[in-house]
Structures are given as structure tokens and as C-alpha cells.
Amino acid sequence: MKESFACAWHGVVYVFATQRNMRIHGAGAIGAAVFGWLCHISRLEWGLLVLTIFLVLVTEAVNTAVEKAVDVYTDGFHPLARVAKNVAAGAVLLAAVTAVLMGAIIFGPQVIEILP
Fold first, then answer.
1. Is residue 60 annotated as a catalytic residue, yes or no?
2. What is the pLDDT of residues 11-66, one digit of tens each?
3. Domain limits at 110?
4. Among 71-80, 82-91, 94-103, which is the least confidently predicted range?
5. Catalytic residue among 45, 60, 67, 113
6. What is the average per-residue pLDDT within 105-116?
7. Are the CB atoms for 40 and 1 separated by under 8 Å?
């Protein structure tokens, strides 16, 4: 159990250390959490925010795993390798769109209140 946790942790560290987009998503997650704290969002909104944040982080991690697995399989161009990488990247895009929509739902009313 301890070894599998260590391996999983090394995977998380790897993806943050090597993937620019994961660091961007991580910064966005921190920003959203700070904004949630400043806006005093409800427990339900926190739950939705946390789920949405981790949806994006998980899909980015899976995207990296797919890319690395495909790279191990083939050095050259293969049309199915391209499809696998594009579909994994598409999953990240869908998660990011979900995050933007969830952010608008949660933070939109607070932002509208403070606008002149």
C-alpha cells in the first residue's frame, strides 16, 4: 500500500514538474480557490468547485499518461497514435470548458454584484 501511494505521488509530482499545462491548471485552481474564499461561497459551491478543479487536473494527468504511452509505442507517425493523443487532449479541453462554465455559475453573481 505504501509503495503504491509513493508511485502515485511520484506521478503527480512528475506531471506538475514536466507539463506546462498542468502548472497552468494548478495556478488556475489556486486562483479559483482564493476567489472562492474571498467570495465566501457556500459549502455546496465549494464541493462543486473542488470537483471541477480535480476534473481538470485528472484529465490533464491522464492526457500526459496517454501521450507517454503512445510515445513508448511508436517513434514515428502513426494515424492512430495521433487520434489517441488528440482524443486525450480533447478530454482536457472538455474539462476546461466545464471549469469555465462552473466558474461562471458560481462566481458570476458575485462578480455582477461588485460591478458598477
1. yes
2. 999 999 999 999 999 999 999 999 999 999 999 999 999 999 999 999 999 999 99
3. 2-114
4. 71-80
5. 60
6. 89
7. no
For 40, left (φ over 0), alpha (ψ -120 to 50), or beta? left
Q: Is the CB of residue 70 less than 8 Å from the CB of residue 21? A: no
Overall number of domains in the chain: 1
The whole model's pTM is what?
0.90
